[in-house]
Amino acid sequence: MPRHRPGLGQGLEALVAPTPPANPAPVATPPVRDWEYAALRRRRRSTVIETAGSDPLAGITRRRVRGLPLISVLGLLGAAGWELAGRDGKRLLLKRPLLQRR
Hints:
Elements: E1 35-42, E2 46-52, E3 60-66, H1 70-79, E4 83-88, E5 91-97
Antiparallel strand pairs: 1-2, 1-5, 2-3, 4-5
C-alpha cells in the first residue's frame, strides 16, 4: 500500500496557498441601448455574414468569407465582441453592442 504524501495528487489546490476572496469595486457601465445584429450562414464553400445595425434605413450588408472553417470565423467574430444570440434553422444569430460615439 502506498504511503500518504500530502500535497500530491490533490490537484493544484494542494500546492497553492488559498487566497482570501477579493471584493473588487463594481465598475459602473452604462446600459446598452443599441445592438448590432448579424446572421452567419454556411454556403457551399464559403460563409456569408449578414450584418444590420439598429437603424433600419441603413440596410443589410453581406460579406462572403472563403477559405476559413466556420469555427475560425466564429472565433474571429467572438474576438471582435460578437455574442452568439441564437440559432434559426441553419443560421447562427449574433449580436454586439454598438459603440457610443461622443
